[in-house]
Design goal:
Elements lengths: L1 E5 L4 H12 L3 E6 L6 H11 L4 E4 L5 H7 L5 E4 L6 H6 L1 H22 L3 E7 L22 H19 L3 E7 L1 E3 L17 H10 L5 E4 L11 E6 H12 L7 E6 L4 E3 H12 L5 E4 L8 E2 L4 H7 L7 H14 L7
Parallel strand pairs: 1-2, 1-4, 2-3, 4-5, 5-6, 6-10, 7-9, 8-12, 9-13
Antiparallel strand pairs: 9-11
Helix pairs in contact: 1-2, 1-8, 3-5, 5-6, 7-9, 7-11, 9-11
């Protein structure tokens, strides 16, 4: 199989490219390197013992994409901006890149005769006030332009499956964390918005202390609850989902564990793993954050037999190994 991975030099993308190469597939990566890293792909090739092809460019560059799609069997579309807070202050950037980029990619796929797509969606399509755990039948109601941009993408895919005979799977990620067990690839985060990298930076003194954004939520310990999933489990979900493209139509799945963890529970896990207490201060709530986001992953388990295997301590342990071996992430 020949797979094209957009955003393949990024955090999730690099782990996915490695899994595809290790499974014996040919891989083409398209990445504009705005958030991706050449060093990540170099290490992926080193770990896999096989090369991938890299095309540096934007998915909105239709001539380049039509050429890149030649001979491709499946597209895995991960390229997107993903910072909730940034999307609140610069929403037009998110709609142009996330929604507009997908629209352009779909046009290129039609021109190239490629009809199979795995779409990187998000739990951010759900809204505050939704009953937990979240199922695929929970009415969407995004609380940020980021979530809205991803929901629009899902709706576009549903129409393309009806009108253009596209076969597509949307995977609603919950909160991916961790790193490859080798410590060679992980989340590059010099100015992270996600919790676990910020915890690691506080532990190593890269920042004086972690700021906990909101300690007064209506949750057991006052901090936000999130469904964290190990990056290796998330990648495994993609590999399973590729098989769904043998079936016609559109498919939608949550990808999480169903086991929520609070910010303070993540701090406790970091203490257990590292033997160090995480310095932190309580701060104000962050725009766009919701108190609780927890998946009901049962549909994926029932339909395809997939279940996340790794617990919170393993997620933090692998992230810590990556961070201590690569202080500050990949070299510039």
């Amino acid at each position: 199989m020949r797979a094209l991975v957009t955003g393949g030099a990024g955090y999730i993308g690099s782990h996915l490219v490695l899994a595809l190469l290790e499974a014996g597939h040919q891989v083409v990566v398209v990445d504009d390197l705005s958030n991706g890293h050449l060093e990540a792909l170099r290490r992926v090739e080193e770990l896999a013992g096989r090369p991938c092809s890299l095309i540096v460019g934007d998915v909105a560059d239709r001539p380049k994409m039509v050429s890149a799609l030649h001979g491709v069997d499946v597209v895995l579309h991960l390229a997107a901006f993903k910072a909730v807070g940034e999307s609140m202050t610069n929403p037009e950037r998110y709609f142009r890149n996330n929604t507009g980029g997908l629209a352009s990619l779909l046009e290129s796929m039609v021109d190239a005769g490629v009809s199979r797509l795995i779409y990187s969606s998000t739990a951010a399509v759900y809204g505050e006030g939704s009953l937990m755990p979240l199922t695929e039948q929970t009415p969407p109601g995004p609380d940020s332009p980021y979530g809205a941009s991803k929901l629009l993408g899902e709706q576009m895919l549903q129409w393309m499956c009806r009108c253009r005979d596209l076969r597509a799977v949307s995977l609603r990620y919950f909160n991916p964390v961790g790193a490859h067990p080798s410590g060679r690839i992980g989340e590059h985060a010099r100015t992270p918005s996600n919790l676990v990298p910020r915890v690691l930076m506080a532990l190593t003194g890269d920042v004086p202390a972690l700021t906990v954004f909101g300690a007064d939520y209506d949750t057991p310990d006052g901090t936000c609850l999130r469904d964290y999933i190990h990056i290796q489990d998330l990648v495994a979900a993609h590999m399973v989902a590729i098989g769904l493209l043998e079936r016609p139509g559109y498919h939608l799945y949550n990808v999480g564990t169903g086991r929520p963890s609070s910010v303070r529970e993540v701090l406790d896990a970091a203490r257990r793993v590292t033997g160090r207490a995480v310095p932190f201060v309580d701060g104000p709530r962050r725009a766009g954050d919701v108190p609780e986001t927890v998946a009901d992953p049962s549909r994926f388990r029932q339909d395809l037999g997939f279940e996340a295997k790794r617990d919170l301590d393993e997620m933090v342990r692998d992230a810590w190994r990556w961070w201590t071996q690569n202080p500050g992430g990949y070299p510039e």
